[in-house]
Design brief:
The chain is mainly beta and 1094 residues long. It folds into 7 domains: 30 residues; 457 residues, Integrin alpha, N-terminal (Methylamine Dehydrogenase, Chain H, 7 Propeller), CATH 2.130.10; 162 residues, Integrin domains. Chain A, domain 2 (Immunoglobulin-like); 156 residues, Immunoglobulin-like, CATH 2.60.40.1510; 181 residues, Immunoglobulin-like, CATH 2.60.40; 31 residues; 41 residues. Strands 39, 40, 42, 43, 45, 46, 48 and 49 form an 8-stranded antiparallel beta sheet that branches. Strands 63, 65, 67, 68, 69, 73 and 75 form a 7-stranded mixed beta sheet that branches. Strands 64, 66, 70, 71, 72, 74 and 76 form a 7-stranded mixed beta sheet that branches. The longest helix is centred in the first third of the chain and has 28 residues. The chain is elongated.
Amino acid sequence: MQFLKGFHFFKMWRSLMVVFIYSMCLITTSDAFNIMEKDAPVFRGGNLRDSYFGYSVAVHSDGGSDKWIYVGAPRDNDTTLPDIDRPGLLYKCRVNITFCDPIVVDANTFFENITVAGQQRTFIPGKNGQWLGGALDINKGNAFVCAHRWYNQSKKMVGTDTYEKQYFQNGMCYESAASKPTVWLKFPLLTLEGQNFENKTDSRGSVIYYTWGFGSLGIAVHFVGTVYADILIGTPGVRSWTGGFVHLKENNPFYSENKMLPNDTSELIGYAISSGKYFGGEDIYFAVGGPRLDLTGKVLFFKMNSTPYDLNQPFVTLNGEENGKRDENGNMSQVGGYFGSALATADVNKDTFDDLLVGAPMFASKNATGQEEGRVFVYLGSSVLGQFQLQKSLLNGSDALRARFGTAITALGDINMDGYGDIAIGAPYEDEDVGAVYIYNGYTGGLWSKFTQRISGKSVQSGLKGFGISFSRAVDTNDDRMNDVAVGAFLSGDVVLLQSRPVIQLGGIIELYTNGIHITVLNLPSLRNYTLNTNRTYPYFEFEIKFTFPKSQVIQMIVLNVTARVDTLKEQQRFSFLQNNKETLEADYSLSIEQGKIARTPEVKVLVKSSSDLVTPIRFHTKYELVDFTLFKLPQRTLQPVLNLFDGSQTEQPIKTITKEIEFQKDCPNNDCNTNLHLSVKADLKNESELFIDELEFLKLNVSITKTGDPAYGTGLTIIFPKSFKYRNVEKIEGDTDIQCRFKIEESKTRAEAGSSDRPQKTLVNNETVIICSYGNPMRQDGGVKFQIVLVPSVFTETRFQFYFNATSQSKENEWNDNTGTINLEGKRKVVTDFNGVSRPDSVSMRAGRNNYEVKHIYGLHNQGPSSMPEAVMYLKYPYVTMNGKDYLRLLGKPIVNPLPPGCSVSCVELNATFSITTIKDQIHGSIQEKSSHCSIDNCPVYKCVIRNIPPRKIIVVDLTLETNIELPNVLSQGKTFEITSTAAVNIENSTNTVFNTLQHATEIRTRFVPMSPPPEPVAWWIIFVSVLGGILLIVIKIIILWKCGFFKRKRWGAIEKRKSEEAKILVKGDEVSSQENNDEIKQEVTEIETKDA
């Protein structure tokens, strides 16, 4: 037993390793969809580097294991024709070997005489540069290849014995059995009468009119349908490049006719050819492209076998303008777009009518950089004879510059197995000539406008160039019942075989159970309960996914990774999975499915966590990915399958997903609830006309909701209000149900969250808040509820407010007219302002040694609130003294505004920068003790400052810096004390919604200047004269008075003289007394007398 257990474990481990390794291989080799890009077979050939190997391609299958790819190399050298320069070669490549061999088509270079359709054809073939392999097609085992530059060498007699060689590029085609291409039938473009040219006369005079001389037979070749051997061959050079075509039926040629004279446009009819049953029935119509018809290009239609094929009378004509401006850029067919240079036929919308795809590879978009991006037009066939429907959207690939998208087009058949035809389109010059191929899928409306796969040449193999120049018909090359296509890359000389990977079509459904019974409606009371480890109990039901894998698939078993999610319609999930005894919002599975059987995921419990919303359906969303094709071998040469990523019948259905919705059981007839809600709203204000918003403490909005009819499930009230208010709470007034409000988390610009999915709601703007209130689930009573929404004011930037209400439920609303309500309020602001100023410093002492002084006049406008002030204008007048070109008092710079509060702005401009100085000069004359420069008197400069959005309780401060010169006192006040004064006024813009305490302010600022010491004062002459005269007169009067009073007389002067006389006499008589003694005594006496007199 232990051995068996070990053996089984080993087998399981080995299987898991195989799954892992194989999965890694799938991951590294997976492609965008079901065309395999990586490891695609690449064939290389050609004797010359620029042989254009791959310019044309075709695939041949003989019904057995041998598959061949025919490749044209129209510029290659042929070793069997050593004397011919680049005649071109046809190659044959075995699919599973990627090796190519040249085919000898025509080795003759001499005169020939052949019979075609019972007529003799004689010619001397010219094969230099004939482009053998320029066009190629294979159908019903027949290969048809052409050399449209093949020419016939003829002689023209220009004298008696002189001939002149002539060369006419008629073109040559060859046909052979594709399985053994050894014998080739020749079809030259030669007729017995007028085969080369005629002389005609038209408005230009006598001109050479080439009939078949430059017919270029075989620039395009096409087998008609799949059951006919008829061949269409393009002849764009017939009738001087007007063009035409040849219908080769059982080797009998039927030529198109054109009786009109050719013109200079070279229409090139026959450049591309296709055929199909575009209008139903069995009638086949030929589609013939003329890319230069009317310079824009056209496609002409002719009914098969309705000969003659008159080019002047086509059955239908298409020009690309059938719908007018039908694409998003207003593009239509355009001159030089080469509309009609590529054609392909397929039934893309599965309506049994063939559809036509028309390429315009030179089409340029209308933007400035548009350069040959290319377009493809899709024409849908119809049951109305001769009428096509042009698909509105054009195909444009990646819209790459110079890509020439639409150079080649081919029908792929149904490669994704959805029943609709698919298309491949080449853009050979995209990505700097690397090239790309685009895959488009058909659907009910035509061809899906977005490609499902882009295959770049780089993703296939490095070095590819010109990838997408040509396509083969779609053929199964590996017997997996999937069409493959060969693609030419002619610039690098390669051919790529793009093989389709099998597509797996899966069917999947989600099933729900309770008590083993399949349920379609969820009835909560009928559910069983489950108790978690947390001792919490919830109702639950079972969930499982069922997959079907049809027998028609190419593989026997697949493995899927499956992820399921529950309640994806709700942000806050009401349900959860219980997997492995753990709650989760996702359930993961790994599921093996055998072909032809049904696989089920294990049953998982779904817990009902919340019953607040019983109306929004429960959505289950499941995604699955293909993991592996384990244990069973794929059929030989079968590529790894992929899941289908596009279904033409369900284009809107997400790929690789399964969804299911289930509704709750409701208390309404047939679970269909019809109700009629009535909403009434009003603001709870005593006087709406006196609503001072900045003094508002809170705002209450009264709401009343009633109903009639069935219960209202999933009720919701959407309230949209300005962000100037903040939601506070909800207060219920009446009603049996609870009111719950919350903010709307996920914003929707066009719809409110709680409401009918088809009911338009108010468009939101950025400055609005949305709350959602539920008022019953369900609301059963007709009396309904009454409640108040309480809002708190915040910062206001406006005064008009709108409050929008919308009452909804998830029951069907019978009448919407009374479900909405609006409250419009016009609030008022109150603004109290103050305006004053101050000087810094308030006085200035002017001292010696300093030349200039600065003083600041500071003005402050204070918004004391409570609201913001919308706008105020401040006028600032300042003194300015200048004489003889010198500034004595001036403003330094401009007014300076202190840092502004957020949202506030100030702009200042000077109103009168120039003024008269005469007034100031007149003012400084006079004999006053103090002078001033005062702007209420002087003609002063003025600054105007516009202040906007001053927040409440903020001050706007404006500084004026004035500079004075030390000589200003001499100019203004002869050195005495003086003042300078500036004035300011504020005008507040009145507003109908704002109440101001005042609309005007005015104030002034004075600065006192005190000089250091006054200069000496000059004295008037008359003052000096009067002073001197008065002094003299006063002295004279004084002398007279002294004289009258005896001031000039001495009392002892006579005694002294008498004494002196007596003493003299004594000396004379000889009284001998010492003279020295007498003199001393006399001097002493004189001194005593003088002392006494004094």
